[in-house]
Specification:
- The protein is mainly beta and 286 residues long.
- The chain has one domain (9-279).
- It contains one helix and 17 strands.
- The chain has one helix at residues 9-26, and strands at residues 49-59, 65-81, 84-95, 98-101, 105-109, 119-132, 135-147, 151-159, 167-176, 182-199, 202-215, 220-227, 235-243, 249-261, 263-265, 272-274, 278-279.
- A hairpin with a 3-residue loop joins strand 7 (135-147) and strand 8 (151-159).
- The two termini are 25 Å apart.
Length: 286
């Protein structure tokens, strides 16, 4: 086994840590002045952050590990208002004992998962329910359409305003505007809620979320995540694998939370109150 640092490593880390988790939470929420009260990032005050480590293996045709990359990603809430939220993302990659700092990224989203400025249409479809571990939870069903120059993405979301992580199921289909062919399809569903999980030094309540994605070329990706509402961004761990059209694993990754700081919003003064910082002793040296 050897370590390599492919160019896409930093972008993969950003996509895993920011794109997926923000899409899962954001696409489920209704746009309103109080949307930040439940959003995985915007419920916290500006300056809140978390640090995670993503360990990724590339698998060869024979099933052997061909390369490994390890990335630490620090994501910090830069802005949150009635229009959306913005994050600063810093990625550090370790290769053969050496650390490389990627160019920082600044990403901004609306509260339905769209990039700010993209056209979006939200329609309420009425009351429904989601069944989790044999129990039915009332939900509101919504259809969210996001248009870009090249694609139209349509999501159907089952959203609960009482059960974290609030989105309970979401299906998404993306259609290429030119060919009218499907280039992406995913099913995201909460498979357990209010489960105990060790978050650094404390036991907290968390939800388990399963995501199955299928891409236009026939490849797919399966991800299992643990979401904790008290941690900025929600996701505290994940395991993931990518597969070819015939089911062979080509990549697998794990994500672990190293550290975080949650800064609270107070309803009266909006004063920022830092939570106690929790250090993970096994983190890479800085």
């Amino acid at each position: 086994m050897h370590f390599r640092c492919p160019l896409f490593s930093s972008f993969t880390a950003v996509a895993i840590v920011v794109g997926l988790q923000s899409s899962l939470y954001a696409q489920a929420l209704e746009q309103s002045p109080s949307i930040g009260d439940k959003h995985a990032w915007a419920q916290f005050a500006v300056g809140s952050w978390k640090l995670v480590r993503v360990y990724t293996e590339t698998i060869g045709e024979g099933g052997a590990v061909e390369s490994v990359s390890v990335a630490e990603t620090k994501t910090t809430l830069d802005k949150a208002d009635e229009n959306g939220y913005a994050l600063n993302v810093e990625v550090t990659i370790e290769v053969a004992g050496k650390r490389f700092q990627a160019e920082p990224k600044y990403v901004a989203y609306g509260y339905h998962g769209e990039l700010l400025g993209q056209a979006i249409d939200v329609k309420h479809l009425g009351s429904s329910h989601a069944e989790i571990c044999g129990q039915k939870y009332p939900t509101g069903s919504r259809r969210i359409i996001i248009n870009t120059d090249s694609t139209q993405s349509t999501s159907t979301v089952e959203y609960s305003d009482t059960v974290a992580p609030y989105f309970l199921k979401r299906t998404t289909e993306s259609i290429d505007n030119e060919t009218k062919a499907r280039n992406y399809y995913s099913v995201v569903e909460v498979i357990a809620v209010d489960m105990p999980v060790k978050v650094l030094t404390e036991v907290k309540s968390a939800a388990h979320v399963k995501t199955i994605e299928t891409f236009g070329n026939g490849t797919s990706k399966v991800t299992l995540e643990v979401h904790c509402e008290s941690v900025p961004g929600g996701v505290v761990s994940h395991t993931s694998k990518q597969l070819t059209a015939d089911g062979k694993v080509t990549q697998r990754s794990t994500l672990d939370l190293l550290d975080y700081q949650a800064i609270s919003k107070t309803s009266d003064t909006k004063e920022q109150i830092p939570a106690r910082r929790r250090l993970f002793q096994g983190r890479l040296r800085r």
